[in-house]
Amino acid sequence: MIRSIYIKNILNYFIVIIVSLILSFLITSLFFQNQIIKIRETEVINQGKGMINLYENLGDKGFDEYLKSISSLPYEVYLYDQNGLVSKTPNVPKSREFSKKTIRDVIAGDVYRKEVEPLLIGLPFETKNGRYALFIKPNLTEQFSQIRNILLTALFIVLFIGTSLILTTTRFLVKPLVRITHATKELARGNFQIRLNVKNKDEIGQLAQSFNFMAEELDKTEQMRKDFIANVSHELQSPLTAIRGMAIALKDGAVETVEEKHYFELIEQESERLSSLTKQLLNLSILEANKSPFNPKLYLLDRQLRNQLVTMQSLWMEKRLDIDFDIPKLEVYADESLMNQVWTNLYSNAIKYNREDGKISIRGHEQGHHVEIIIRNTGYGIPQKDIPYIFERFYRVEKAHTRTTESYGLGLAVVKRIIDLHNGKIFVNSIEGEETTFRIILGK
Predict the structure, then answer these.
(1) Binning pLDDT at 50, 70 and 90, where does residue 400 land?
(2) pTM for this prediction
(3) CATH topology of domain 5-143
């Protein structure tokens, strides 16, 4: 089996050229043969008329001498009268192609034409001695052979030049594919930095652009994977280090009795943080793997939003936040359990990153076949440079893994994934230092 596309293209082109040349040779030969026959027919008729004049002037003996003088020419000449053959060119057999009927018809005055190879013309004429039929058969074999040789020479030249050009052009055609194949192997080995510099605007160029786009996306994914591992390691390491340090201190008796309870409480808090982190990681992994149960149904969205806000009342009252809730009766077709996580995370962020005595505004309305929910909070806001990344795992606007808030950077990643599962959309608009607005669009 031929595996090289270079060899396959050459063979395909070569076969196409050979078939084309053979067909061209046959068609051209047939065309020229017909053209030559038509041209020679006119010439033979004119020559025949000249021979008739010679016969009338020279008689039988003189005409025989004339036929002997032209015996080296590629002609066969036969002269018949009503009694049979009168004269012919020397060294040629009596023609077997002349039937008695044909001879009689020409003597009677008909012109005979056989317009295929071999060409044959029969001309009638009359003298004082009676009526005659002159048959002339030119030998066109040599002429046809010359034409075929010329055509074959031209076709072989075309074949040579065409093959040379195909070998060259196919190499240029296949070269980008070879580079793409090499780049694909490098990509498979984990080299996500490789890029193709193919400037073609054709399908190969589009393939190269698609490859570059794929490599860029894989590079981003690989970087996200590395960041994810680093962030998970950091988030897990911090509570584990704290728990280990406190456990060692308690075991070695380095903690006074009055402080032991406080140390146990800290260990419990760090354990809860560790448990919360692993639960969120597990939840996000399940969502991204599409393994989470997805049971959409029609339910009242306004009631869900109101109930979720009530369950978090202690949190927003602690910061003395003003709640502006204005949502009419809205129905939505979604997974109620998953959407609970969305509102919990969005409410939690609106409270956590709000200022004291701030405000949270929740609005909702129908929009054609969709419903739109807007959650706005006054607070620190999000810098514009951070907005494109806030839905990525472990991304936090607070840098250097600060602990001013209990955030792992997973909540909005979960929100985005759940919204995507519902074929919905989520948009963020923020004015740094003033407010942040989340706009969610869901199907009814």
Answers:
(1) very low
(2) 0.50
(3) Beta-Lactamase (3.30.450)
